[in-house]
Amino acid sequence: MRIVLLGAPGAGKGTHCKRIVDRYGVLHLSSGDILRRERAQGTPLGKRAQGYMDAGTLVPDDLIVEMMSKAIKAAPEAGYVLDGFPRTVNQAEVLDQALSENGDGIDLVMNLQVSDDVVLERITGRRSCPKCGAVYHVKNMPPKKAGVCDHDGTKLVQRPDDTAEVVKNRLATYYEQTRPVVDYYRARRTVHDVPADGDADEVAQLLFEQLDALEQE
Ligand code: AMP
Fold first, then answer.
1. What share of the chain is helix, strand, coil (3-state, %, to 5)?
2. Which of 40, 96, 127, 170 is least surrounded by Cβ atoms within 10 Å, i.e. has the fewest?
3. Ligand 1 within 6 A of 35 CB?
4. How far is the CA of 71 from the centre of ligand 1 (A)?
5. How far is CA 15 from CA 63, 109, 128, 215, in A?
6. Which of 198, 13, 183, 177 is closest to 115 using CA atoms?
7. Which residues of 84-156 form beta strands (DSSP E)?
8. b/e for 107-124, b at 16 or more Cβ within 10 A?
9. Of 79, 85, 84, which Cα lies nearest the Cα of 105?
10. Is 170 a catalytic residue?
11. Is the distance from the beta carbon of residue 31 to the nearest atom of ligand 1 less than 6 Å?
């Protein structure tokens, strides 16, 4: 299965990718997570990416395309779900071209639809564990003990780009550069829109319906 999960920041892409991985055994390829790992390791890519990430703007396409091509090539037979990539029309074109050179293509594109105020509320309340990556929300999904991870007791942190000011930039970047990716795919194939303002279990159910159908093809 080769899946693309689209949606604004805070739409729930990361949360739902984890559920998709658990159910279908595909690999979660999140460009944001890979970049954060590169930063934590202090690699040249991580260093080049950090200014863009902290400002809520996009890392240049050539760096991202190289990084994601490597990750996709190393993916297992079961396939992958792409999260946060492609994020520009150019990235989508390069991805399509690279896949078609191998006689492959994306099997399913799903688009999580959320309103801006839900995005703002979700992202500014998001906290994560720097050790195991578990994600919480101060109101909607609090840890058992405030401020610490349920799994390993590590102090939870807020991503530096999850502040209200940076989220506004990330949303503006989304509308300007990433929303056109939805139209790019719509012009070429079916895009399954999934309303994602509501309860995560209900959203997951809608995603699973599409994926179950794909699995049975
Ligand atoms: P995310 O965790 O997906 O919200 O990504 C965090 C940040 O990483 C974004 O705000 C961008 O600065 C950068 N980033 C992630 N994916 C991409 C991409 N496909 N193209 C360009 N920049 C990206």
1. 50, 15, 30
2. 40
3. yes
4. 15
5. 25, 17, 12, 21
6. 198
7. 108-113, 126-128, 135-137
8. ebbbbbebeeebbbbbbb
9. 79
10. yes
11. yes
pLDDT for the residue numbered 166: 92
Taking the C-alpha atoms of residue 26 and residue 17, their distance in angstroms, rounded to an integer, is: 9
188 with 3: CB under 8 angstroms? no
Q: Is this model's pTM higher than 0.90 or not?
A: yes
- Tens of pLDDT, residues 111-124: 999 999 999 999 99
CA–CA distance, 23 with 212 (Å, rounded to integer): 10
Question: Strand, helix or coil at 188?
Answer: coil
Nearest atom in ligand 1 to 31's CA = 16
Is the CB of residue 64 less than 8 Å from the CB of residue 181? no
- The structural domains of the chain, ordered by start, are 2-114+177-216 (3.40.50.300)
* pLDDT tens string 9-27: 999 999 999 999 999 999 9
Q: How many residues does the chain have?
A: 217
72 Cβ inside 6 Å of ligand 1: no
Burial of 200 (0-12, 13-18, 19+ CB in 10 A): middle
